[in-house]
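Following up on my earlier thread - several people asked me to post the actual chain instead of describing it. Fair enough. Here it is, all 298 residues.
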Amino acid sequence: MSTVYMVRPSPGEGLGCFATTDIQPGTLILSETPLFSVAEPRTNSAVTTGFAGLDSAQQLQYLTLYAQNSHAKHDDAARVIDVFNSNAWQTGSRTSICPLAARFNHSCVPNASFAWNARLGQITIYAIVSIPADTQIKLSYERPYQTTSSRRAKLSAYGFTCACPACSDASCCSDVRRSRMLLLDARIRTGRRQLWRSPVPKAALELIRLLKEEGLVGEALGLAYHDAALGWKRHGRLDLAVGCARMELEVAVMCFGVESLAVEGSMAFLVGLKGEAGKIEKARCTVNTLGVLEEDTG
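Reply from S.P.:
Thanks for posting it. Predicted structure:
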């Protein structure tokens, strides 16, 4: 069990995970191997078979997890399936049960990020902002580019109503930002398949700004930096592309840890851009040198 957090009751949420010390961004909070996993598309029989393969202590740990249908008997098949559906994590091409990770509650403005690390075969959770001691550590169960009503409709499947700052924003500023983010993201996806009319990657740069304003500094921000880097590269500004790629890498390390495949991909992208920028600079130096030589011999 991690020493940086503890599980304790949280009003209105059952149990929650609370920091026991000040946690800095990029700190590994949890790394957990699944109890069992099933291939997608999954079947109920696959879930019950996976459960049957656990030892008695693991089965007990599994059955103490939240189940939306609280009327199911503690040890019947319906309960086993309900627990799985209420707590399962997507882990590559499979869906898994990680009982420690399942204790982390949701926020639409999370202070931690979770991911499947295929290299380790584990779920990892990293802090993405400074988390003061005694603060609840929360993850986001949903994609960020959704309005409050859309998120609530999807989160209802988990049996709760989110009351995070974004969902409690009476001014609707959060909804305005997130609606705009959804539009910008769509424009970026389209922009990858056609020439951008703007001299700068406007959509990606605006998306970065809105994500920061919304307090979304995790994986989505890293993807936006990647899109900005691609945009600057397309416009011939490799210097600015390299800067955005560096920020993408910084976010990736914070969210996924240095040993993740995601960080490896971000590093390769940055190295590639720097290599291209170096070749162009070398070519410019060669041209300048030839120009000087021509002047000397003229």
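The beta strands are 5-10, 14-19, 28-32, 36-39, 89-91, 94-97, 105-106, 112-117, 122-127, 138-139. That should answer part of your original question.
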